[in-house]
Amino acid sequence: MSKLPNTPASIFSVMSKLANQHKAINLSQGFPNFDVDSRLLEISTRLLNENVHQYTPMAGVPSLLNKIALLTEKGYQRKIDTSSEVLITTGATQGIYTVITAFINSGDEVIILDPSYDSYEPSVMVAGGKPIRISLNEDYSPNFNRIASAITVNTKMIIVNNPHNPTGKIWTEQDFEDFETLLEKYPQILILSDEVYEYISFKHPHISVNTRPKLRDRAIIASSFGKSLHVTGWKVGYLIAPEHLMSEIKKIHQFLVFSVNSISQHVISEYLDIVDFSEVSQMYQKKRLLFQDLLKGSKFEILPSEGTYFQVVNYSEVSNKNDMDFATELITKYGVAAIPISVFYEDGTDKKMLRFCFAKTDETLIAAAEKLITI
Questions:
Q1: Contact predicate 60/238, CB 8 Å
Q2: Which of 90, 99, 249, 307 fits a disulfide with 94 by CB distance 3.0 to 4.6 angstroms?
Q3: What pLDDT was estimated at residue 373?
Q4: What's this model's pTM, rounded to 2 decimal places?
């Protein structure tokens, strides 16, 4: 009997496959199509000939763990113990799955804020838990009245995604203060904070759970070098959590992957000595503004993008079709692939929204926009 009887193929796989079939410009799946930093490639080439090809320690290469600790202290003023509070994972998705598997038991409820990344719910279901999906506000900010109403004696965890995929929304200081006030009443609830786009924010700075003393003793934070360093195919992420939580996570991790790709860890460790993460937001800010400027002459309504490398648009002035049908037509008729937002909702809420990924070369964005403004 299937543990996920009603779970279809990932929308990202579906739309990318369709884009390939029709030779469409793929702005659907969230991966960069530009070259990685040449310095990263130089380090990779050199280390290929060194003795870095065997199992690493289960938690990660010690030098990389130390660099993460330095990065966390510099960026978030949080000191972490590399021996007990950080874990290298095979991408953030594996980390998220491992966390859910470690803490969610049969009957436990997990609050998920919709629209939500598609890996959360199936991970909860495989663990035997019950996903409780709560819609965000119209502007995609958290609705704490709805969250409070959803909490029961069975609520074990709430998953927060900030900066938010697919909408690009970033939580404010007030959001966090309200969140802290709410959770003071429920000390048993764990927080899984998905922060894989933490280094991609624009007008408003990203606020990490790492900076919230009232939350971090019950929180697990997921980060992604794949997103931050534009190497999504390397599948290297990491988790930060207090020791009493991390010890349980490691029990699952050791039997799931044991240790993450060795050479990737060594390369990233060395690269962290020279990379400037402040340049990541600056680069994507230019691409975001370019894409928005290119679409200004179109019928698409450009919604705010405060972080991530995604741009959500409303197409209600373009078509009356539902978003899945219109996204399909966009590929087959106009040659551009996007992701329909309804797939991120439990009930398929359709507000005629599409998500475009602007982590592409300028040439790709220009070519896509030339097609979109003709619609």
A1: yes
A2: 90
A3: 94
A4: 0.96
DSSP line for 252-308 = HHHHHTSS--HHHHHHHHHHTTT--THHHHHHHHHHHHHHHHHHTTSSPEEPP--BS
Reported as a single tens digit per residue, the pLDDT across 186-205 is 999 999 999 999 999 998 89
The end-to-end CA distance of the chain, in Å, is: 46
* CATH number of the structural domain spanning residue 317: 3.90.1150.10
| Calpha distance 260→89 (Å, rounded) | 6
Residue 303 DSSP one-character state: P
Helix axes 278-295, 362-372, angle to 10 degrees: 20
Q: SS3 for 83? A: coil
Model pLDDT for residues 166-180, shown as the tens digit of each residue: 999 999 999 999 999
Residue 152 is part of a domain; what is its CATH number? 3.40.640.10
- Rounded to a whole number of angstroms, the CA Rg of the chain reads 20
* pLDDT at residue 31 in the model: 87
Dist. CA 261–CA 80, nearest whole Å: 23
96 and 177 share one domain: yes
> Packing angle between helix 262-271 and helix 38-47, nearest 10 degrees?
130
- Helices and strands: H and E segment counts in the chain: 14, 13
Contact predicate 240/79, CB 8 Å: no
Instruction: Please say if the pLDDT value at position 8 is more than 80.
Output: no
**Contact indicator for 196, 229 with CB cutoff of 8 Å:** no
Taking the CB of residue 261, how many other CB atoms lie within 10 A of it? 16
Helix (H) or strand (E) holding 125: helix 120-126
